Recover the amino acids of this structure.
């Protein structure tokens, strides 16, 4: 457990310091931030710190499309390559490179990354240090410490373009752009800091958690807190703001290291052909239009108790297939891997569907769609915002369309209630066929103007189109600590 806790911060503990906002980055939209210093700062000594949450995981490394760039300046950069973390400086004989053996592919977690550079250090192996959640990485699949000479001037803090979410030396086609969320980004010019300047281990759980940075940022340093939706490139340390490329106010999120929200996570193949792409837009968008296959996604947070609310939006429907979205719940008891997870079949165990198919009990098409009072929409579902209220305490589910209940209230979730009583976690589940679907757990609701998503739960968490029903809460870790 200690190893797991120190590997990732899931935001499930009280921190004493709250991070209010993050910024969502999506490579499909070529979203990134950039700034070029007007004069050089300290190129020998600096510290970069950022909290990141990945939402698109790649299986292989060292290839275009699998490189998720976090920070770059000229030929110096930090990225996820495949699922390892790389720090690199490429300039002739000064080709310094570290690539972790550890893989970082938990889409439910926030990672804190600190990169410290100090080329004045007399020990070559100490000139660059990489820390993940407060612990220094020492095991590398590839390392060339010796290729950075003492007192070398790297590109960071030079008068070259500095970018967040993109590789500054390439255009957007080959830029290895980031997919996910970033929060609390610091660059400290002129000082080699340890992670304890930005975080600390919780005394009870051992989990690494954020704390406020109290020092100076130096000449070319910066601090991005993403609190100003109208200016997400704002340098809160008082320096020059970053330019926003395809970043809009809708990219501001409340999913942060101190309140981690559910997103779309594990993907389940649901047809005979190859799996298709991951969830997009910070794990909130199932982009499947034109793909004649079922595909399903689980949420990243499961529960056994409490009352929870989330929304989804249907942008358009296929005239051929009507509403073939199955929206409901799934336990982790059985996850189909080799077979198709289609509605009404034994491959899709313990699912309550909203759509053309019936509720499924113990993996069997039970024929209880009408009796249970499940709603069903055809193409009339397009353009509507649907809500789902899940009462895990009583084993019931209720659906809404544009804030009006559809189907019966408190529909029985059958065997899932017994599963939860036995300790089996139940997760949000979404499955589509040849159509797109947007999902909003409250941490990021990007598909319309933020002013359309200004409702919160009773604790003040989430950004919803409609206020959750009384007693229901956003599926996030601060609420889980209280109700889950």
């Amino acid at each position: 457990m200690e190893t797991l806790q120190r590997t990732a911060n899931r935001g499930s503990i009280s921190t004493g310091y709250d991070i209010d906002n993050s910024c969502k980055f999506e490579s499909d939209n070529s979203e990134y931030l950039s700034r070029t210093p007007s004069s050089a700062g300290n190129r020998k000594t600096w510290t970069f710190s950022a909290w990141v949450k990945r939402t698109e995981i790649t299986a292989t490394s060292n290839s275009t499309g699998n490189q998720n760039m976090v920070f770059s300046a000229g030929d110096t950069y930090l990225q996820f390559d495949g699922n390892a973390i790389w720090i690199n400086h490429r300039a002739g004989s000064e080709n310094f490179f570290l690539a972790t053996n550890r893989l970082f592919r938990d889409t439910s977690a926030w990672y804190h990354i600190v990169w410290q550079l100090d080329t004045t250090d007399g020990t070559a192996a100490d000139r660059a240090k990489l820390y993940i959640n407060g612990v220094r990485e020492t095991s590398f699949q590839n390392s060339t410490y010796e290729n950075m000479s003492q007192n070398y001037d790297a590109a960071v803090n030079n008068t070259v373009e500095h970018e967040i979410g993109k590789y500054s030396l390439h255009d957007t086609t080959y830029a290895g752009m980031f997919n996910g969320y970033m929060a609390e980004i610091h660059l400290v010019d002129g000082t080699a800091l340890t992670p304890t300047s930005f975080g600390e281990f919780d005394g009870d759980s051992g989990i690494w958690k954020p704390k406020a940075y109290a020092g100076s940022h130096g000449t070319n340093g910066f601090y991005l807190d993403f609190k100003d939706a109208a200016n997400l490139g704002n340098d809160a340390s008082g320096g020059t703001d970053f330019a926003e490329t395809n970043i809009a106010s809708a990219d501001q999120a409340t999913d942060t290291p101190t309140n981690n929200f559910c997103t779309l996570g594990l993907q389940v193949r649901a047809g005979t052909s190859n799996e298709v792409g991951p969830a997009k837009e910070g794990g909130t968008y199932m982009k499947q239009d034109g793909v004649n296959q079922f595909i399903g996604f689980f949420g990243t947070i499961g529960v056994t108790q409490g009352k929870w609310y989330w929304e989804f939006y249907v942008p358009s429907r296929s005239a051929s297939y009507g509403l073939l979205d199955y929206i409901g719940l799934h336990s982790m008891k059985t996850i189909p891997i080799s077979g198709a997870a289609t509605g009404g079949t034994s491959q899709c165990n313990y699912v309550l569907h909203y759509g053309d198919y019936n509720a499924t009990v113990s993996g069997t098409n039970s024929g209880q769609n009408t009796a249970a009072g499940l709603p069903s929409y055809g193409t009339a579902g397009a353009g509507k915002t649907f809500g789902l209220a899940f009462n895990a305490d009583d084993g019931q589910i209720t659906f809404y369309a544009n804030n009006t209940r559809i189907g019966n209230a408190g529909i029985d979730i059958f065997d899932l209630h017994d599963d939860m009583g036995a300790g089996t976690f139940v997760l949000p589940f979404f499955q589509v066929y040849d159509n797109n679907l947007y999902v909003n757990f409250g941490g990021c609701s990007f598909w319309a103007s933020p002013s359309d998503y200004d409702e919160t739960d009773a604790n003040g968490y989430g950004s919803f189109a409609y206020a959750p029903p009384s007693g229901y809460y956003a599926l996030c870790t601060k609420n889980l600590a209280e109700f889950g």
Q: What stands out?
A: The chain has two domains: 2-253, 264-483. Residues 1-7, 337-358 have pLDDT under 50 and may be disordered. Helices lie at 2-7, 369-372, 415-421, 477-483.
